[in-house]
Amino acid sequence: MTVTKDTVLAALARIRMPSGRDLVAEDLVRALLIESDSRGDQVRFVLEAPTPEAARGMESVRAAAEAAVRALPGVAQVSVVLTAHGPAAKPAAPSLKIGGHPTPQAPGQTGPQRVAGIDRILAIASGKGGVGKSTVSSNLAVALARAGRRVGLLDADIYGPSQPRMMGVSGRPESPDGKTMIPLHAHGVTVMSIGLLLKEDEAVVWRGPMLMGALQQLLGQVAWGELDVLIVDLPPGTGDVQLTLCQRTHLTGAVVVSTPQDVALLDARRAIDMFAKLKTPVLGLIENMSSYICPSCGHEAHIFGHGGVRAEATKLGLPFLGEIPLSLDVRLAGDAGTPIAAGEGPIAEAYATLAQRLIDGGMA
Ligand SMILES: Nc1ncnc2c1ncn2[C@@H]1O[C@H](COP(=O)(O)OP(=O)(O)OP(=O)(O)O)[C@@H](O)[C@H]1O
Protein backbone atom coordinates (compact mmCIF):
# COMPACT_ATOMS: atom_id res chain seq x y z
CA MET A 1 0.00 0.00 0.00
CA THR A 2 1.49 3.35 -0.95
CA VAL A 3 -1.20 5.77 0.21
CA THR A 4 -2.33 5.87 3.81
CA LYS A 5 -5.58 7.04 5.36
CA ASP A 6 -3.77 10.15 6.54
CA THR A 7 -2.63 11.02 3.02
CA VAL A 8 -6.16 10.58 1.70
CA LEU A 9 -7.64 12.67 4.51
CA ALA A 10 -5.04 15.38 3.92
CA ALA A 11 -6.10 15.54 0.26
CA LEU A 12 -9.76 15.68 1.25
CA ALA A 13 -9.05 18.43 3.76
CA ARG A 14 -8.18 20.67 0.80
CA ILE A 15 -11.71 20.42 -0.61
CA ARG A 16 -13.99 23.21 0.48
CA MET A 17 -17.71 22.97 1.04
CA PRO A 18 -19.99 25.92 0.19
CA SER A 19 -19.86 26.71 3.94
CA GLY A 20 -16.13 27.45 3.54
CA ARG A 21 -15.15 24.54 5.81
CA ASP A 22 -13.44 21.50 4.33
CA LEU A 23 -14.75 17.96 4.00
CA VAL A 24 -12.74 16.63 6.93
CA ALA A 25 -13.53 19.55 9.24
CA GLU A 26 -17.21 19.06 8.38
CA ASP A 27 -16.79 15.40 9.38
CA LEU A 28 -18.39 14.06 6.21
CA VAL A 29 -15.93 11.29 5.38
CA ARG A 30 -17.01 7.78 6.37
CA ALA A 31 -15.87 4.19 5.80
CA LEU A 32 -12.51 5.05 4.23
CA LEU A 33 -11.04 1.82 2.91
CA ILE A 34 -7.76 1.32 1.07
CA GLU A 35 -6.98 -1.92 -0.73
CA SER A 36 -3.91 -2.64 -2.78
CA ASP A 37 -3.06 -5.06 -5.51
CA SER A 38 -0.70 -5.26 -8.45
CA ARG A 39 -2.58 -2.43 -10.20
CA GLY A 40 -2.06 -0.03 -7.28
CA ASP A 41 -4.23 1.27 -4.46
CA GLN A 42 -8.00 1.23 -4.57
CA VAL A 43 -9.60 3.80 -2.33
CA ARG A 44 -13.26 3.75 -1.37
CA PHE A 45 -15.12 6.04 0.97
CA VAL A 46 -18.50 7.51 1.67
CA LEU A 47 -19.39 11.20 1.93
CA GLU A 48 -22.31 11.52 4.28
CA ALA A 49 -24.29 14.71 3.80
CA PRO A 50 -26.55 15.97 6.58
CA THR A 51 -29.73 15.81 4.48
CA PRO A 52 -30.79 14.32 1.14
CA GLU A 53 -31.20 17.89 -0.18
CA ALA A 54 -27.63 18.76 0.81
CA ALA A 55 -26.43 15.55 -0.84
CA ARG A 56 -28.12 16.49 -4.11
CA GLY A 57 -26.13 19.73 -4.19
CA MET A 58 -22.87 17.97 -3.45
CA GLU A 59 -22.17 16.11 -6.69
CA SER A 60 -19.43 18.61 -7.61
CA VAL A 61 -17.85 18.13 -4.18
CA ARG A 62 -17.99 14.36 -4.66
CA ALA A 63 -16.33 14.67 -8.06
CA ALA A 64 -13.65 17.00 -6.66
CA ALA A 65 -12.97 14.55 -3.81
CA GLU A 66 -12.66 11.69 -6.28
CA ALA A 67 -10.28 13.68 -8.50
CA ALA A 68 -8.14 14.79 -5.53
CA VAL A 69 -7.65 11.23 -4.33
CA ARG A 70 -7.10 9.87 -7.83
CA ALA A 71 -4.26 12.38 -8.24
CA LEU A 72 -2.36 10.88 -5.28
CA PRO A 73 0.65 8.80 -6.32
CA GLY A 74 -0.04 5.05 -6.30
CA VAL A 75 -3.84 5.36 -6.47
CA ALA A 76 -5.28 3.28 -9.29
CA GLN A 77 -9.00 3.44 -8.57
CA VAL A 78 -11.29 5.62 -6.47
CA SER A 79 -14.92 5.09 -5.57
CA VAL A 80 -16.78 7.80 -3.68
CA VAL A 81 -20.38 7.24 -2.70
CA LEU A 82 -22.56 10.13 -1.63
CA THR A 83 -25.08 9.31 1.07
CA ALA A 84 -27.34 11.35 3.27
CA HIS A 85 -28.75 11.48 6.74
CA GLY A 86 -32.42 12.04 6.67
CA PRO A 87 -35.59 11.53 8.60
CA ALA A 88 -36.16 7.83 9.17
CA ALA A 89 -38.74 6.43 6.79
CA LYS A 90 -41.69 4.78 8.48
CA PRO A 91 -41.93 1.07 7.75
CA ALA A 92 -44.77 1.09 5.26
CA ALA A 93 -46.50 -0.95 2.66
CA PRO A 94 -44.03 -2.21 0.05
CA SER A 95 -42.94 0.57 -2.21
CA LEU A 96 -40.85 0.24 -5.30
CA LYS A 97 -38.67 3.13 -4.36
CA ILE A 98 -35.47 1.23 -3.92
CA GLY A 99 -33.33 2.07 -0.93
CA GLY A 100 -35.90 2.54 1.84
CA HIS A 101 -35.27 1.37 5.37
CA PRO A 102 -35.45 -2.34 6.07
CA THR A 103 -38.76 -3.31 7.63
CA PRO A 104 -38.41 -4.61 11.14
CA GLN A 105 -39.10 -8.29 11.65
CA ALA A 106 -42.68 -9.09 12.57
CA PRO A 107 -43.33 -9.83 16.24
CA GLY A 108 -42.53 -13.46 16.98
CA GLN A 109 -40.17 -13.74 14.02
CA THR A 110 -36.71 -14.61 15.12
CA GLY A 111 -33.62 -15.47 13.17
CA PRO A 112 -33.15 -15.74 9.44
CA GLN A 113 -36.28 -16.07 7.30
CA ARG A 114 -36.89 -18.12 4.18
CA VAL A 115 -37.96 -16.45 0.92
CA ALA A 116 -41.22 -17.93 -0.39
CA GLY A 117 -40.77 -20.09 -3.48
CA ILE A 118 -36.98 -20.24 -3.25
CA ASP A 119 -35.58 -23.58 -2.09
CA ARG A 120 -31.95 -22.59 -1.63
CA ILE A 121 -29.97 -19.36 -1.50
CA LEU A 122 -26.25 -19.39 -2.21
CA ALA A 123 -24.24 -16.26 -1.46
CA ILE A 124 -21.16 -15.81 -3.60
CA ALA A 125 -18.63 -13.83 -1.61
CA SER A 126 -15.06 -12.66 -1.80
CA GLY A 127 -12.74 -11.02 0.67
CA LYS A 128 -11.53 -8.44 -1.84
CA GLY A 129 -12.80 -6.84 -5.02
CA GLY A 130 -11.77 -7.84 -8.51
CA VAL A 131 -11.15 -11.54 -7.87
CA GLY A 132 -13.96 -12.53 -10.22
CA LYS A 133 -16.87 -13.03 -7.82
CA SER A 134 -19.41 -11.57 -10.26
CA THR A 135 -17.96 -13.56 -13.15
CA VAL A 136 -18.18 -16.77 -11.13
CA SER A 137 -21.75 -15.91 -10.02
CA SER A 138 -23.05 -15.42 -13.56
CA ASN A 139 -21.26 -18.47 -14.95
CA LEU A 140 -22.34 -20.69 -12.10
CA ALA A 141 -25.94 -19.53 -12.53
CA VAL A 142 -25.82 -20.33 -16.25
CA ALA A 143 -24.14 -23.71 -15.66
CA LEU A 144 -26.77 -24.66 -13.07
CA ALA A 145 -29.56 -23.63 -15.47
CA ARG A 146 -27.97 -25.75 -18.21
CA ALA A 147 -27.98 -28.66 -15.77
CA GLY A 148 -31.76 -28.27 -15.51
CA ARG A 149 -32.08 -26.31 -12.28
CA ARG A 150 -34.47 -23.36 -11.90
CA VAL A 151 -32.00 -20.59 -11.15
CA GLY A 152 -32.21 -16.96 -10.09
CA LEU A 153 -29.33 -14.50 -9.98
CA LEU A 154 -29.53 -11.51 -7.67
CA ASP A 155 -26.85 -8.87 -8.14
CA ALA A 156 -26.52 -7.34 -4.69
CA ASP A 157 -23.19 -5.68 -5.45
CA ILE A 158 -24.63 -2.32 -4.61
CA TYR A 159 -21.43 -0.35 -5.21
CA GLY A 160 -20.57 -1.94 -8.54
CA PRO A 161 -23.42 -3.93 -10.05
CA SER A 162 -22.02 -5.80 -13.05
CA GLN A 163 -24.61 -8.50 -13.78
CA PRO A 164 -26.62 -6.47 -16.32
CA ARG A 165 -23.45 -6.28 -18.46
CA MET A 166 -22.31 -9.84 -17.79
CA MET A 167 -25.74 -11.41 -18.41
CA GLY A 168 -26.57 -9.02 -21.25
CA VAL A 169 -29.77 -7.61 -19.74
CA SER A 170 -30.92 -4.02 -19.72
CA GLY A 171 -34.04 -1.95 -19.24
CA ARG A 172 -35.90 -1.07 -16.09
CA PRO A 173 -37.86 -4.01 -14.65
CA GLU A 174 -41.62 -3.56 -14.91
CA SER A 175 -44.02 -3.53 -12.05
CA PRO A 176 -47.60 -3.89 -13.27
CA ASP A 177 -49.05 -3.87 -9.74
CA GLY A 178 -46.69 -1.22 -8.34
CA LYS A 179 -45.60 -3.62 -5.60
CA THR A 180 -43.75 -6.46 -7.23
CA MET A 181 -40.94 -6.18 -9.74
CA ILE A 182 -40.80 -8.51 -12.71
CA PRO A 183 -37.27 -9.85 -13.11
CA LEU A 184 -35.51 -10.24 -16.45
CA HIS A 185 -34.45 -13.50 -18.06
CA ALA A 186 -31.21 -14.39 -19.83
CA HIS A 187 -29.42 -17.64 -20.66
CA GLY A 188 -32.05 -19.65 -18.77
CA VAL A 189 -31.58 -17.60 -15.59
CA THR A 190 -34.01 -15.22 -13.85
CA VAL A 191 -32.03 -12.04 -13.20
CA MET A 192 -32.45 -8.99 -11.01
CA SER A 193 -29.80 -6.40 -10.32
CA ILE A 194 -29.78 -3.29 -8.24
CA GLY A 195 -28.06 -1.80 -11.31
CA LEU A 196 -31.31 -2.12 -13.29
CA LEU A 197 -33.10 0.07 -10.79
CA LEU A 198 -30.63 2.92 -10.86
CA LYS A 199 -30.42 5.34 -13.71
CA GLU A 200 -27.16 5.12 -15.60
CA ASP A 201 -24.47 7.37 -14.09
CA GLU A 202 -26.78 8.21 -11.20
CA ALA A 203 -24.84 8.96 -8.04
CA VAL A 204 -25.99 6.55 -5.39
CA VAL A 205 -27.39 8.61 -2.56
CA TRP A 206 -28.29 6.35 0.29
CA ARG A 207 -26.94 5.33 3.62
CA GLY A 208 -26.30 2.07 5.46
CA PRO A 209 -29.86 1.21 6.47
CA MET A 210 -31.07 2.05 2.97
CA LEU A 211 -28.69 -0.48 1.48
CA MET A 212 -30.18 -3.10 3.73
CA GLY A 213 -33.69 -2.02 2.83
CA ALA A 214 -32.78 -2.33 -0.85
CA LEU A 215 -31.47 -5.84 -0.37
CA GLN A 216 -34.58 -6.86 1.50
CA GLN A 217 -36.73 -5.47 -1.32
CA LEU A 218 -34.74 -7.29 -3.97
CA LEU A 219 -35.28 -10.55 -2.15
CA GLY A 220 -38.88 -10.05 -1.16
CA GLN A 221 -40.45 -7.83 -3.82
CA VAL A 222 -39.15 -9.49 -6.96
CA ALA A 223 -41.44 -12.04 -8.58
CA TRP A 224 -38.78 -14.75 -8.58
CA GLY A 225 -41.27 -17.57 -9.10
CA GLU A 226 -40.35 -21.07 -7.98
CA LEU A 227 -36.58 -21.47 -7.86
CA ASP A 228 -34.35 -24.41 -6.96
CA VAL A 229 -31.60 -21.97 -6.18
CA LEU A 230 -30.98 -18.23 -6.00
CA ILE A 231 -27.38 -17.12 -6.47
CA VAL A 232 -26.63 -13.84 -4.68
CA ASP A 233 -23.63 -11.87 -5.98
CA LEU A 234 -22.52 -9.98 -2.87
CA PRO A 235 -20.41 -6.84 -2.73
CA PRO A 236 -16.76 -7.64 -1.92
CA GLY A 237 -15.57 -7.64 1.67
CA THR A 238 -17.34 -7.99 4.97
CA GLY A 239 -19.74 -5.06 5.25
CA ASP A 240 -23.33 -4.31 6.19
CA VAL A 241 -24.89 -6.04 3.20
CA GLN A 242 -23.26 -9.38 4.05
CA LEU A 243 -24.17 -8.99 7.69
CA THR A 244 -27.81 -8.20 6.99
CA LEU A 245 -28.20 -10.96 4.45
CA CYS A 246 -26.83 -13.60 6.85
CA GLN A 247 -28.82 -12.34 9.81
CA ARG A 248 -32.15 -11.81 8.07
CA THR A 249 -32.32 -14.45 5.35
CA HIS A 250 -32.00 -18.18 5.64
CA LEU A 251 -29.00 -18.98 3.45
CA THR A 252 -28.05 -22.46 2.32
CA GLY A 253 -24.53 -21.17 2.59
CA ALA A 254 -21.76 -19.09 1.14
CA VAL A 255 -19.23 -19.88 -1.54
CA VAL A 256 -16.01 -17.88 -1.28
CA VAL A 257 -14.12 -16.95 -4.46
CA SER A 258 -10.43 -16.09 -4.29
CA THR A 259 -7.44 -15.84 -6.54
CA PRO A 260 -4.43 -17.83 -5.34
CA GLN A 261 -2.37 -14.77 -4.32
CA ASP A 262 -1.51 -14.52 -0.64
CA VAL A 263 -3.13 -11.09 -0.27
CA ALA A 264 -6.40 -12.33 -1.76
CA LEU A 265 -6.29 -15.38 0.48
CA LEU A 266 -5.78 -13.23 3.53
CA ASP A 267 -8.98 -11.35 2.70
CA ALA A 268 -10.81 -14.57 1.84
CA ARG A 269 -9.94 -15.85 5.32
CA ARG A 270 -11.53 -12.71 6.79
CA ALA A 271 -14.73 -13.37 4.85
CA ILE A 272 -14.74 -17.00 6.03
CA ASP A 273 -14.31 -15.83 9.64
CA MET A 274 -17.24 -13.47 9.24
CA PHE A 275 -19.49 -16.27 7.96
CA ALA A 276 -18.38 -18.49 10.84
CA LYS A 277 -19.31 -15.76 13.33
CA LEU A 278 -22.69 -15.33 11.65
CA LYS A 279 -23.21 -19.11 11.64
CA THR A 280 -23.60 -19.18 7.85
CA PRO A 281 -22.12 -22.41 6.50
CA VAL A 282 -19.25 -21.92 4.06
CA LEU A 283 -19.99 -24.51 1.39
CA GLY A 284 -16.60 -24.27 -0.21
CA LEU A 285 -13.91 -22.25 -1.93
CA ILE A 286 -13.33 -21.60 -5.62
CA GLU A 287 -9.96 -20.62 -7.08
CA ASN A 288 -10.42 -18.13 -9.92
CA MET A 289 -7.67 -16.97 -12.30
CA SER A 290 -5.93 -20.16 -11.32
CA SER A 291 -3.58 -20.86 -14.19
CA TYR A 292 -3.09 -19.20 -17.55
CA ILE A 293 -3.02 -21.26 -20.69
CA CYS A 294 -1.45 -19.37 -23.59
CA PRO A 295 -3.94 -19.44 -26.46
CA SER A 296 -1.15 -19.60 -29.06
CA CYS A 297 1.30 -22.15 -27.65
CA GLY A 298 -0.71 -23.97 -24.99
CA HIS A 299 1.92 -23.22 -22.33
CA GLU A 300 0.47 -23.14 -18.81
CA ALA A 301 1.70 -20.33 -16.57
CA HIS A 302 0.77 -19.58 -12.96
CA ILE A 303 0.55 -15.81 -12.93
CA PHE A 304 -1.02 -15.51 -9.49
CA GLY A 305 0.47 -18.77 -8.23
CA HIS A 306 -1.64 -21.91 -8.28
CA GLY A 307 -3.18 -24.19 -5.72
CA GLY A 308 -3.22 -21.64 -2.89
CA VAL A 309 -6.99 -21.77 -2.50
CA ARG A 310 -7.08 -25.57 -2.47
CA ALA A 311 -4.35 -25.59 0.21
CA GLU A 312 -6.28 -22.99 2.22
CA ALA A 313 -9.50 -25.04 1.96
CA THR A 314 -7.65 -28.13 3.21
CA LYS A 315 -6.15 -26.14 6.06
CA LEU A 316 -9.55 -24.81 7.11
CA GLY A 317 -11.32 -28.15 6.62
CA LEU A 318 -13.60 -26.67 3.93
CA PRO A 319 -14.53 -28.24 0.58
CA PHE A 320 -12.54 -27.07 -2.44
CA LEU A 321 -15.11 -26.73 -5.21
CA GLY A 322 -12.89 -26.17 -8.22
CA GLU A 323 -10.61 -23.90 -10.16
CA ILE A 324 -11.21 -21.66 -13.15
CA PRO A 325 -8.23 -20.64 -15.30
CA LEU A 326 -7.35 -17.08 -16.20
CA SER A 327 -8.47 -16.69 -19.77
CA LEU A 328 -9.10 -13.74 -22.02
CA ASP A 329 -12.20 -15.53 -23.32
CA VAL A 330 -13.76 -15.38 -19.84
CA ARG A 331 -13.48 -11.62 -19.77
CA LEU A 332 -14.56 -11.13 -23.37
CA ALA A 333 -17.61 -13.35 -22.82
CA GLY A 334 -18.53 -11.45 -19.65
CA ASP A 335 -18.13 -8.10 -21.37
CA ALA A 336 -20.26 -9.26 -24.28
CA GLY A 337 -23.16 -10.37 -22.07
CA THR A 338 -22.95 -14.11 -22.70
CA PRO A 339 -21.07 -15.89 -19.89
CA ILE A 340 -18.55 -18.41 -21.12
CA ALA A 341 -20.50 -21.19 -19.35
CA ALA A 342 -23.27 -20.70 -21.94
CA GLY A 343 -20.99 -22.02 -24.69
CA GLU A 344 -18.72 -25.01 -25.22
CA GLY A 345 -15.07 -25.60 -24.33
CA PRO A 346 -12.87 -26.41 -21.33
CA ILE A 347 -13.98 -23.47 -19.17
CA ALA A 348 -17.69 -24.13 -19.81
CA GLU A 349 -16.93 -27.73 -18.80
CA ALA A 350 -15.16 -26.58 -15.62
CA TYR A 351 -18.30 -24.62 -14.69
CA ALA A 352 -20.53 -27.58 -15.55
CA THR A 353 -18.45 -29.75 -13.20
CA LEU A 354 -18.67 -27.10 -10.49
CA ALA A 355 -22.44 -26.88 -10.93
CA GLN A 356 -22.79 -30.67 -10.81
CA ARG A 357 -20.74 -30.81 -7.61
CA LEU A 358 -23.16 -28.35 -5.97
CA ILE A 359 -26.18 -30.26 -7.24
CA ASP A 360 -24.77 -33.60 -6.05
CA GLY A 361 -24.09 -32.10 -2.64
CA GLY A 362 -27.71 -30.90 -2.39
CA MET A 363 -26.50 -27.29 -2.42
CA ALA A 364 -28.17 -26.21 -5.68
N1 LIG B 1 -11.07 -16.42 -14.96
C1 LIG B 1 -10.93 -15.21 -15.48
N2 LIG B 1 -10.13 -14.98 -16.55
C2 LIG B 1 -9.97 -13.73 -17.07
N3 LIG B 1 -10.60 -12.65 -16.64
C3 LIG B 1 -11.43 -12.80 -15.58
C4 LIG B 1 -11.64 -14.07 -14.96
N4 LIG B 1 -12.52 -13.89 -13.94
C5 LIG B 1 -12.85 -12.59 -13.93
N5 LIG B 1 -12.20 -11.93 -14.91
C6 LIG B 1 -12.25 -10.49 -15.24
O1 LIG B 1 -11.74 -9.78 -14.10
C7 LIG B 1 -12.49 -8.58 -13.90
C8 LIG B 1 -13.06 -8.58 -12.48
O2 LIG B 1 -14.02 -9.63 -12.40
P1 LIG B 1 -15.37 -9.47 -11.59
O3 LIG B 1 -16.05 -8.18 -11.88
O4 LIG B 1 -16.14 -10.73 -11.76
O5 LIG B 1 -14.75 -9.42 -10.12
P2 LIG B 1 -15.48 -9.12 -8.75
O6 LIG B 1 -14.73 -9.92 -7.74
O7 LIG B 1 -16.94 -9.34 -8.84
O8 LIG B 1 -15.17 -7.60 -8.59
P3 LIG B 1 -15.97 -6.51 -7.73
O9 LIG B 1 -16.18 -7.14 -6.44
O10 LIG B 1 -15.02 -5.35 -7.70
O11 LIG B 1 -17.25 -6.27 -8.44
C9 LIG B 1 -13.55 -8.54 -14.99
O12 LIG B 1 -13.07 -7.78 -16.04
C10 LIG B 1 -13.67 -10.00 -15.43
O13 LIG B 1 -14.07 -10.13 -16.79
Automatic annotation (TrEMBL):
BP GO annotations: iron-sulfur cluster assembly
Listed binding positions for ATP are 127-134
Q: The MIP18 family-like domain covers which part of the protein? A: 5-80
Q: Cite a single Pfam family from the UniProt record.
A: ParA
Q: Where is this region: Disordered?
A: 91-112
UniProt keyword annotation of Glycoprotein present: no
Which Gene Ontology molecular-function terms are recorded? 4 iron, 4 sulfur cluster binding; ATP binding; ATP hydrolysis activity; ATP-dependent FeS chaperone activity; metal ion binding
Identify the PROSITE patterns for this entry. Answer: MRP
Note whether S-adenosyl-L-methionine occurs among the keywords.
no
Q: Which Gene3D superfamilies does the UniProt entry name for this protein? A: Fe-S cluster assembly (FSCA), P-loop containing nucleotide triphosphate hydrolases
Q: Where is the composition biased (Low complexity)?
A: 99-112
Q: Which UniProt keywords apply?
A: ATP-binding, Hydrolase, Iron, Iron-sulfur, Metal-binding, Nucleotide-binding
Q: What does this protein do?
A: Binds and transfers iron-sulfur (Fe-S) clusters to target apoproteins. Can hydrolyze ATP.
- Describe its assembly: Homodimer.
So what family is this one in?
Belongs to the Mrp/NBP35 ATP-binding proteins family.
Please identify the protein, giving its name as recorded. Iron-sulfur cluster carrier protein
Species of provenance:
Frigidibacter albus
